[in-house]
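TL;DR need structure tokens for one chain.
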Amino acid sequence: MAAERRGGLSPRAQTWLGWAAAAVGVAVLAFLVGRAGSETGLSQPSPSPSGASPAPIMYGTALDPVSGEAIGATDRFRDGDPFVYSVRMLAAAGTDTVLVEIIRLNADGTQTIAQRSSEQRIVATSRVFAFEVRATNLLEAWGPGRYAMRIYLPGAEDPFAAGRFTLVETPVAS
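>> reply
TL;DR here they are.
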């Protein structure tokens, strides 16, 4: 009986090797499943925000009293018009502040900062946020023209929402 034990592993060593083999098997299986998912284009557990397209900013003439979103869709605003915009996010922002930047899109293809990133307060637990101002105020601040709006979360390099609009000067009757 003593001769039979010399050539084999002890029961303790066999148990240890069994658990080690199981752990290696689980690690290999997890690696293969993860690789298969990434190659088929399945969504990753934590996507990079920089790789995603920004959510659209919806422009309109009023706020829907139920949803809180912009209605009366338009992207052209005249002196005296209400200027309304809203963003619907996939999940609540988790912060009570967003940064809004306005870029003037010049006719020659260049861009000029019309408004540096400025803080806007939002409800951190809501998936929708919206604002309404008079187009008159924007025309006085920036003048008529085409503009791009970009909205950022604090500390982010890439906007999570973006859209374009036009401010139109109303001709004065003579």
